[in-house]
Amino acid sequence: MAPPPTVAVLGAGHVGPVIARLAVSAGYPVAVAGRGDPADIELVAELIMPGARPQWAADAVADAGIVVLAIPLHRFAEVDPGLLSGKLVVDAMNYWPASDGAIDAFEQGASSEIVAGRLAGAAVIKALNHIGYHELEDRARPPGAPDRRAAGVAGDDPAAVAAIAGMIDRLGYDPVRLANLRAGRVLQPGGPVFGAVLSRAEFELAVREEARSLA
Amino acid sequence: MTYTFGLDTFGDRNDDDAGVPLSHAQTIRNVVEEGVLAEQVGLDFFGIGEHHTDFFPMPAGDVVLAAIAARTQKIRLGSAVTVLSSDDPVRVFQRYSTLNAISGGRAEVILGRGSSTESFPLFGYDLADYEELFEEKSALFAELLKGGPVTWAGKTRAPLLNQDVVPHTESGPFPAWIGVGGNPESVVRAARLGFSLMLAIIGGRPARFAAYSQLFRRALDKLGRPALPVGVHSPGHVAATDEQAKAEFWPRWRDLVTLVADERGFAIPTEESFDWDTGPDGSLYVGSPETVARKIAANLRVLQATRFDLKYGMPGLTHDQLMTNIELYGTQVVPRVRELTG
Hints:
The structure holds 2 protein chains of 2 kinds.
Chain A: E1 7-10, H1 16-25, E2 30-33, H2 42-48, E3 52-54, H3 57-62, E4 66-69, H4 81-84, E5 88-91, H5 97-100, H6 112-118, E6 123-127, E7 150-155, H7 158-171, E8 174-178, H8 200-214
Parallel strand pairs in A: 1-2, 1-4, 2-3, 4-5, 5-6, 7-8
Antiparallel strand pairs in A: 6-7
Chain B: E1 4-9, H1 24-40, E2 45-48, H2 61-70, E3 76-79, E4 82-83, H3 89-102, E5 107-112, H4 119-122, H5 130-146, E6 150-152, E7 160-163, E8 176-180, H6 184-193, E9 196-200, H7 210-222, E10 230-238, H8 242-264, H9 271-278, E11 285-287, H10 289-303, E12 307-311, H11 319-341
Parallel strand pairs in B: 1-2, 1-12, 2-3, 3-5, 4-5, 5-8, 8-9, 9-10, 10-11, 10-12
Antiparallel strand pairs in B: 6-7
Helix pairs in contact in B: 1-2, 1-11, 2-3, 3-5, 6-7, 10-11
């Protein structure tokens, strides 16, 4: 089996460290980048996500096979699209006007589609956005566990979707693939599976109709 | 180890016995009585969190704290939290320094970035700016607390040039904390600015915050600063039995979380999730005095914390239920926690 690719987590706030810890314990080499100098998050990395290497964002991304966007969506505009060109990118961000402020472009219901539009040249997958960061670690289970939970994976590039579905499985969730990035809107806040604790069968049932009409 | 115990309220709007909501004004008068009772039952701290909604009509908690100060002698009084990002640090300092004067040196503040965000549009701030607002304003507040003339310039308010800000405190800075909800960068900021750390734990396993407590200590150490206390703020409700406490709290908790779930990204609570949250691994302190005391003692140990503030009440509970909660917390829970941790 090929060694797992390096995961670069962009964001060292609420969500980033949780994903970094999950990835470290699943055996991935993990790099993490905050807003600037890696020295600023050295202590945070050492104590909150042991095993993850703090780096400048550009360095973390350059060496990574998978990049996870775990920053507040209103800071996405600060991300240089050139940096992510050619990369496999997981969009774990959510549009949350009540806590992050309204952003006009995101008011029409699309979220990851807009991210993908700006990151032309990257394969953008929506995943890891719909399980609360309080719960993401506690709910992770090995394959076959009776109480394993489902997690959605949405994207337009089938190979990229397959790769991230594999990662989701390793992190401890049953991946449920959606038809495309647009169908991934069912994973957003207010949608049928956002924050819900569901088995694969329950998850598939909950998203079936809406995902079909979106796709 | 010296532990201190407090109560926090958001001015949760009371119902009467028939389930009819009381007026905002009556709810506020009830909070004054609750603060006075908190002292009578021997508690160390009473805190009021800033909110601006119909179910938490509590935008000016410092005024309410001043009324409690006038009727008490020993209990410490503070915000829990002050939404500093949408306030003026100079005014916050002045209000709490005034409270400190009225109360004979019993004021504290807990500064928060504000997970309730209704104050931003109300006062004309953009939520997208909250990080910069909090960073700048908490740094200015740290300067103001030192007590000397302040010189400061930034983007979020008018500059200060060798400005004497009154009223002066009589004996140095009053205690100031930063409330942190799960962002490790905020923990490091608290250490950098010399604030104590209040962990706001309202969901998931409290034990996962142990790393934050450690991070805070290590960051202080690295900065060459003296050790500072770590506290825990969590919601709960105490009644005579586990069954009664859960029966009183559950429908109120369910309704509130359901109401804010969409904008806060919370899952809608179920009876199953509530059982987990109120069980030994969850972060709700709901139950009999013994149940709640055991959970507090266990988590103070795990989190290496020396202060526990129970956020009591929930919109729709009655004033009588809250008074019973406060009485049981002060007379049974806290003595039992001291016994368990002693």
